[in-house]
Amino acid sequence: MISEILKNQTKELHDRVEQKFNSAKIFEENYTPDDYSKLLTYNYLFLRSCEEPVFESLSENFGELLALDKRRKIHLFDLEKEHLNTEKHSAGEICINSEAEALGIMYVMEGSTLGGNMIAKKLEASDSFMGSKFPYFRCYGDRTGSMWKNFKSVLDEVISEDDHGDVLKGAEKAYHFLLRLPD
Question: Which end is more exposed in the chain, N or C (fewer Cβ atoms within 10 Å of the end residue's Cβ)?
Fold first, then answer.
């Protein structure tokens, strides 16, 4: 199953991204609005560079199977403009060579929704974030689990073994893109 291959073979890159984003600090009492701004900005730069090219690289079949019209997230950053700091940041572009690579990048995009839900739950309990709604990190609301399961199911059922290497390459590209973002 390609979803398990991706999880296992990208674990080190995932952990490095978590470290870069200082994700462990979210569960400490000293997480600040500046920390949140940095995390949100990283996610914005990633999606600004990747969401449209990924969606454009996917066939109509995947559009239907994955309900792509419900997976767009870039617009949610408009609801959190006060937390974004994009003036001095340049993200660059990501090169997508195949539909399989696009699905690998999308694996990283969609996987972040699970963590986003946990982030929002933790931060809403903090006095520093009283009243915050976290629209990006709550992008799917109570459908987060089912959206992730649908994505993994489509990957596992539709992707041929011949394409596993390219899907993995796409996920690795996504993680390397995130690691190259300026601090």
Answer: C
